[in-house]
Amino acid sequence: MEYQPLDPKDGTGSQGSIYTEKSKKLEDAKSSSWLFIFFGIAGLILIACVWLGVLPLSLAFPMKLLYTIVLGALFLACLLMGLGYLKKSKTLAAETDAEERRTREIIDYITTTYSLADLDRTLQAADLPMEQRYFVRSEKIAALITEKFPLLEESYLDYLVEQIYQIYAPEESL
Predict the structure, then answer these.
(1) Beta-bridge mates of residue 13
(2) In this predicted model, what pLDDT tens digit does every residue of 35-61 receive, in sequence order?
(3) Using 50, 70 and 90 to split pLDDT, how confident is the model at 125?
(4) Residue 115 CA to chain centroid, in angstroms?
(5) d(CA 32, CA 25)
(6) How far apart are CA 144 and CA 107, in angstroms?
(7) Interval 134-155: pLDDT, tens
(8) DSSP the chain
(9) 82, 43, 47: which is closest to 67 by C-alpha?
(10) For a pLDDT cut of 70, what percent of the chain falls above it?
(11) pLDDT the model gives residue 138
């Protein structure tokens, strides 16, 4: 795994996208679901208040009907999107648990099997400047991970390498 410069077209490295933990996706899905549900219910309540006369809005019947149809569809769509995000968050919760277990397994395997001295000894990395040492160690960590756990998504592998490197040498992390 060698260093790839940023791709000017998409702002990411040419190797792929930046990895986002499933736990962060779960938090986003939960907060989005409750926001959409709240907005949808609040809007539908406001429409009901207009029809019940609680909110005095003096509109002709055709305009009130058009207002109800258009805004009602919008608020109903928000409610349905919120329920969709809520369903997605339940699926993500199971995926988050599995990802956390796998991440912990990989990190524990590498950090208990290999020490920083082992990495430096096999690569003669101790004599290199800090920046070069970072890349040499990162490549070795990535190779060790893929040797034991093949077929990992590349952005997930990069995330794991970064997590493991911070455990080995937190003062040297870029």
Answers:
(1) 6
(2) 999 999 999 999 999 888 888 878 788
(3) low
(4) 30
(5) 10
(6) 11
(7) 888 888 899 899 998 888 889 8
(8) ----PBPTTTSSBTT-PPP--HHHHHHHHHHHHHHHHHHHHHHHHHHHHHHHTSS-----HHHHHHHHHHHHHHHHHHHHHHHHHHHHHHHHHHHHHHHHHHHHHHHHHHHHH--HHHHHHHHT-TTS-HHHHHHHHHHHHHHHHHHHS-S--HHHHHHHHHHHHHHH-GGG--
(9) 47
(10) 86
(11) 87
**Matching residue, tokens 């959409």:** 36
Residues 20, 14: Cα–Cα separation, whole Å: 17
Residue 40, both tokens: 């949808």
What is the residue-wise DSSP string for 53-80? TSS-----HHHHHHHHHHHHHHHHHHHH
Q: Are 146 and 157 in contact (CB under 8 A)?
A: yes
What's the rounded Cα separation, in Å, for the pair 63 and 77?
Answer: 21
